[in-house]
Every structure is written in structure tokens, then in C-alpha cells.
Amino acid sequence: MVFHPALAPYRIDFFNALAANFDATFYFTNANLLDQQFDQDRLRGQCEFKFNLLEKGFQIGGRQVRLGIRKIIKRETPDVIICSEYSQITMSVLMLRYTMRLSYKVFTISDDSIALSIERKGIRKFLRDQASKSIDAIIFPSDAVGEWYRQNVNGKTKLLTLPIIHDNGVFRSKLAESLPQAQNYLHKFQLMNKKVFLFVGRLVDIKNVDFLIRAFAKSGVGEETVLVVVGSGPEEKNLKNRARSLRLENVCLFPGRFEGNDLFAWYTIADCLVLPSYQEPYGVVVNEALLAGCKVLCSNRAGSSDLVNAKNGYLFDPFEVDELSSLIAKVDNGLIPKKQLSGLRPDLMRFSLKDSIANIIKGIETS
Hints:
A six-stranded parallel sheet has the order 12-11-10-13-14-15, with helices on both faces. The protein has two domains: 2-167 and 352-365, Rossmann fold; 168-333, Glycogen Phosphorylase B (Rossmann fold). It contains 15 helices and 15 strands. The protein is an alpha/beta fold.
């Protein structure tokens, strides 16, 4: 049984795998993510499982409390429950196992990077430390985060690794479907004979896009190189003003927010994705770009920095403008302006989701 905040595109492949290997039931606490709204009808079409919404509950201090967990557990009689983070539901599941004298195993998925793990304070740190005493296994996005947890929180908990990545074959098929839209973008946004650096994400402070724009301006790249900022959010007006003040209005594009093939088309066009966040639990855009054969410049504060190596990109400090500007110039020097799209480029991911899921399934079966 799985309790999760909401249906998100970067979890569908994992949930499909669970449904294919186990008699699995899914419960989501929200109809959509709170910080980003996805087209749920489109996402449901990709699901090979059915799910239920937990609608009964209330909020305390901005935190959601969901009711009816005991009734669900009593009805479903699960062998394993997979929760999310150290939430109210996770703590309820642990408590109910004790009070109801049941023997199900409890796993939780933690998306924290090492930086966020270190920064946890107050009630968040308290709940994590308390849960670690009773939880059977934690699924982390990388081996490095799991090792930090082992050394700093609890060395006895069973630790598993599942990066927040897509199934290679499934996502590459979507990229192929997006090629006609990518061709359309090349003409619509006048990107023929251009080198393209790309940002994808919410336009909020922690994404550090202002830093990216300043680094791009300082890099000294020519007019044949453009920065495309895909997304929307409260910082959009300020970012456009920043680009204008640095005289980048002709080479810094803000086409808006996209989903599905309309988004994937940007990965097939881009030469290099930049993720400059100074706080980022993971950053699935890095995986999406690499699957499209797009090189990556990634903040060393992002959990997905583990996906980057010397063959597919570079890491940088999200507070050092000179470092990022130098990397932009370095990558730019090795690029050739786009003449046409002739198909998908080779996948730059170092490993596949199937390998990671196989380890999770084995961990569940042996729990």
C-alpha cells in the first residue's frame, strides 16, 4: 500500500512498476501538487494502476492532517506500507502498527538532498529522528544521501536507493513524439543557427534564475547563443527586468510554462540545461535533459547532481557567478549552432530506472 502526496509525472513509472509486481493500492492526499499544478487528466492516462484520494482532514499551521488511515489499514491488511517523508501519515502508520498490534513493514520515501538533510531543524528534524527508530526502510534518491543518513541519524535502518528518474525507454518515446513541436519552436522562436542554454522550473527565488541570468551575461558568449527560461511564477517580471537591464532581451527568452510534449520539445532543442537552484531536494529536469542527450550544468546543492559526471556535464557552486559563467563559456565553445533537428541524440544517463526499481522490489520482497 502506498500513501503519497499527489500524482506527479516523475513518480508514474515507479508506481506502475509497483502495480506490476505487487497487489498494490494507492492513496494520494491531494488532487494535485501544492507547489505546482500538473494536468492530472494527462497523467492519469499514463497510469497502469488505480488510486484513491484522501479527502477527509484539516490543516494545522499550514500542515495537512488526513483522517481515516486506521480504517484503510484495517480494510486493506497490507504487508508493506510505503509512505512519503516523515509526514503525519507516516507517523500515524507507525503508531497504528503498535496500537493495533499489526506486523506490516513501513517504508518511507525521502527526497532530501544532503544539503537539505543537514539543514533540517525543529519539528522536521525531530520527526525524522523519531521515525528512524521504528521505520523498517527508507528510500533515498542517492547512495550519498543514504550514507549521510547512516553516519548522522541511524546506522541500523535499512536504506534503499531510488533516484527520481524516468523509465529510459518510455521517456525517450515521448521525446520522439515531441520532435514535430520542437521543429515548430525552432521557427517560432527563431532558434535556427543558435546555440541553446535552457532552464526549466518554477520562477521562484530558490531556483536562482536571477543568478543564472547574471552568469549568462558575464560569460561573454556571442549573439548566436540564447538562454531559454521555461516556466512561470512570482519572479517572472523581476527576471525579465533583470534580462532587460543586462541588455539580454534579444537572447534571453521567456516562452512560458509547458507540460508533456510541449515541454519535452525544449529538451530536444537545447544544447545544455542549467539547474542553478541553491535549494533543490532533487531536480528531475536533470534526468529529463540527460535522457534527451542534452548536457547539464547543475548546482552542487541539487539532489540530482549525482546524475552528472565528466561525460555529461559539470557541477558548480550556486553562489559563485564567476564559476557558472566560466562553465557556460566552456560549454558554449564546444557547441555548433543548430542547423536542423535530425532526430534524438544519444541518451546521456549513466544508469536506468529499471535497475534501481529492481533493487527496490527486492528490498520489499525480503523485508
